[in-house]
Design a protein that fits this description.
Blueprint lengths: L2 H10 L1 H21 L4 E8 L18 H12 L2 H11 L5 H11 L5 H10 L2 E5 L5 E8 L2 H59 L13 H53 L5 H55 L1 H35 L7 E8 L8 H27 L5 H8 L6 E3 L14 E3 L1
Antiparallel strand pairs: 1-3, 1-4, 2-3, 5-6
Helix pairs in contact: 2-11, 4-6, 4-7, 7-10, 8-9
């Protein structure tokens, strides 16, 4: 079918098409006028995704933010929130609600659950741009009722979120409290085992859990090095003291005497008494220098011998202590193993006690982390029925229905409306179209007024 044939087909059924559109539009308007008006109320809650939890210190990153928001949406529309709203509104004792429940269920089941299910059907929760704010929407035929109910929904949602957090924390605290008891018993048992090994082996543990005897070896090494350094320091001090005080002064006097002796040799001669006195003085100074040097060497030898004896004694004690430690290696191994087990059980006990303290603190919290954002926003005009939208949808429906009706009727009746229809029916080409004076156009062809050959 060509476009001209399709256009002719639609044109021929234009009145039917228009009738379908008008009928659909009229039906939509009547239905819109018959439906009750609906008002919408909104309440917003800030989720505070960026700030860490004040109790647990946890925060949400970009990976789990979407899952958290979806969970909050489901929580808003959950039966637990709905039942709490029913309690706040007092619908359980409302005669109208009781009558509706009896008519709908025959008086079977829980009225609170039934009313909450009816309420949840009109609740919606949508995250605003950015995901940090959740908007709660409720629709009702009464504007004031919509405001009251959406406010109760927001309050119930915050209370329920806090209750879920505290209940979960209380369950964790109970579980950790149960785990702490055997962990403490295990720690006490390992500590008692360590004390038993100490009594059996005669080991005394000092600060930090180290055997006091095991420090003897390092102490001996330290004392030996200290003694050697002290002896060397004594020798050096003696050498510096003698050199600076005695030998230095004697050498200066010797230099002066030799200078005077050289001058006397040139002026007085070798048989002069003054020359002989200077010679005797030089000999005396040389002897004194030799004696001071001998004393210095003797002092150095004594200090070196003392250091050597102390080093030998220290080496002997070191070797003896080393042999004792090697003999006590199995005992030290038992002590080390017992200490490791005590440290392990103590670490487990500390972790469980820390988790228990955090869980108890979380179970006693009074804030859910959700913040109310402003007051309730209510529409002054009804949001439903939406006349423009209903008119548009009805027009589109009528247009589609009319087109389908025209197409089915045209294909069923197979009338000649354009030259192409005649050419297809006769199997020969159309050479010309003759129009009568009464025919204003050839599209579509009118029987009895136009002929084609």
């Amino acid at each position: 079918m060509s476009l001209s044939q399709l256009g002719a087909l639609i044109w021929s059924g234009r009145w039917r098409l228009l009738l379908c559109v008008l009928a659909s539009l009229a039906g939509a308007m009547v239905l819109s006028l018959w439906l009750p008006k609906t008002y919408e109320a909104k309440a917003r809650v800030i989720l505070e995704l960026m700030r860490p939890d004040p109790v647990l210190g946890t925060s949400y990153n970009t990976k789990n933010t979407e899952a958290y928001i979806q969970t909050q949406q489901l929580l808003v529309t959950s039966g637990r929130v709905g039942e709490r709203v029913i309690e706040k509104l007092g619908w359980v004792d409302n005669p109208a609600v009781i009558d509706s429940w009896q008519q709908a269920t025959g008086g079977t089941g829980d009225i609170k659950t039934w009313a909450a299910g009816r309420l949840l059907g009109a609740i919606g929760a949508y995250p605003l741009e950015g995901g940090g704010t959740l908007e709660i929407v409720y629709r009702s035929p009464n504007q004031e009722a919509a405001e009251t109910i959406v406010r109760a929904i927001r309050e119930s949602y915050i209370e329920t979120a806090l209750a879920l957090q505290t209940e979960a924390a209380a369950r964790r605290a109970t579980r950790f409290a149960e785990l702490v008891v055997p962990a403490r018993k295990a720690f006490d048992a390992e500590r008692a085992n360590l004390l038993a090994v100490q009594r059996e082996t005669g080991t005394v543990l000092g600060y930090g859990g180290k055997d006091i005897r095991n420090g003897t070896l390092s102490r001996l090494v330290t004392e030996g090095r200290t003694a050697q350094l002290s002896a060397q320091r004594t020798v050096n001090q003696a050498m510096r003291r003698v050199t600076s005080q005695q030998i230095g002064m004697l050498r200066q006097d010797l230099i002066q005497v030799e200078q005077r002796l050289a001058m006397a040799d040139n002026t007085l001669g070798g048989s002069n008494p003054d020359y002989d006195a200077l010679t005797e003085q030089r000999a005396l100074l040389v002897g004194q220098i030799a004696k001071a040097t001998a004393v210095l060497r003797a002092q150095g030898a004594v200090a070196a011998n003392a250091a050597q004896r102390l080093n030998e004694l220290n080496d002997t004690a070191y070797q003896a202590e080393r042999e004792r430690l090697l003999d006590s290696a199995p005992v030290d191994l038992r002590i080390a193993q017992a200490q490791r087990m005590v440290a392990l059980r103590e670490g487990e006990l500390q972790r469980l006690e820390a988790n228990l303290a955090n869980a108890r603190q979380a179970s006693e919290r009074t804030e859910s982390g959700l913040v109310v954002m402003g007051d309730v926003i209510a529409s002054k005009e009804p949001v439903a029925p939406n006349f423009p939208l209903n008119a548009l949808l009805a027009s589109l429906f009528g247009l589609g229905l009319g087109l389908a009706s025209v197409m089915i009727d045209g294909l069923w009746r197979r009338e000649v409306r354009v030259p192409q229809d005649l050419a297809g029916a006769a199997g020969v080409p159309v050479l010309a179209v003759l129009r009568s004076r009464r025919a204003r156009s050839w599209w579509p062809l009118r029987r009895g007024r136009t002929a084609a050959a």
